[in-house]
Structures are given as structure tokens and as C-alpha cells.
Write a structure and sequence with these properties.
It contains 5 helices and 5 strands, in the order H-H-H-E-H-E-E-E-E-H. The chain is of the alpha+beta class. Pfam families: SMI1_KNR4. This is Knr4/Smi1-like domain-containing protein.
């Protein structure tokens, strides 16, 4: 299945559901806990939609920490990774760390960047003075992980 031509996240999840692709949704209680992670700012709609569909596991993200079992530790893990690498970069209050891979890279979005925010990355193997923008939208980023 390739979704390059259709970058609509709702269509993406509908297509996965039609072929019974393995994914485990979050419960309403899980979503409430997520919302409390950012009490003064609203989490983006696309992120909440993703977690509603696959927040407790999806096959194409095996090995990547993003699910409810991981989400509460990701910011601390990102801070530790930056410190271990003596990076001058810092995690700001408006940056939401939503995914980490194998302890050497993480992704985040800005909480004030709308319902489908841009995605930024830190990868310890890439030398840079700033975080790298890897996608203009969270929707495209999620779909690209499947297409990868």
C-alpha cells in the first residue's frame, strides 16, 4: 500500500482499517491523560486523532517509542539525550516530544502550531546547531513512516 498520492490522514487510517492493519487505539481515559500533559496548551487535532487510532501500538512503528506506555517519559528522555551529547539545544515548554527511536533520535512539534503542525527532529548522528524540520505537517510525517 502506498499513500504518496493521497496525504489525507483520515483516508490513510480508513485504508488501514479496511485491510485490518494491526493497530491498537487509546481509550478515552488515555486521551484524557494525554490532554493533561499539556494543561495550558491544546494538543493538535491530528495528534489526538493518531493516538485515538493507534496510540497503544501500530505495526509499522515497532521499535519506536510513542505509545501511551512511553509518552510520559519522552520529554525526559529527549532532555537526557541532548545532555549526553553536550548539545546546546534545549527543549522549550511549547515543544511536545511525541516520538523517540532507539534512544538516539526524537521528534516533536510546537504546541502553538495549529491542528496539523510541522515536525522537527533531533538525531545524534547529525551535526547541526538547530533542530531539523522533517515535515511540514504531522499528517505527512505519520504517513511517511508507513511509506518508509
Amino acid at each position: 500500500m502506498n499513500f504518496y498520492k493521497n496525504r489525507n490522514i483520515e483516508d490513510f487510517f480508513t485504508s488501514l482499517e479496511k485491510v485490518s492493519y494491526p493497530m491498537k487505539p487509546c481509550s478515552k481515559d488515555d486521551i484524557s491523560k494525554l490532554v493533561k500533559l499539556s494543561p495550558t496548551r491544546t494538543l493538535p487535532k491530528i495528534y489526538l486523532d493518531f493516538m485515538n487510532k493507534a496510540g497503544n501500538g501500530i505495526e509499522f512503528l515497532v521499535g519506536t517509542d510513542y505509545s501511551m506506555g512511553d509518552i510520559f517519559d519522552l520529554k525526559e528522555g529527549a532532555i537526557e539525550l541532548l545532555e549526553e551529547n553536550n548539545s546546546a539545544r534545549k527543549i522549550a515548554d511549547d515543544q511536545f516530544i511525541f516520538m523517540m527511536h532507539q534512544g538516539y533520535m526524537f521528534w516533536f512539534f510546537y504546541l502553538n502550531d495549529g491542528d496539523d503542525p510541522a515536525v522537527y527532529c533531533y538525531d545524534e548522528s547529525i551535526e547541526s546547531d538547530d533542530f531539523n524540520k522533517v515535515s511540514d505537517t504531522l499528517s505527512d510525517f505519520i504517513i511517511s513512516l508507513y511509506d518508509w
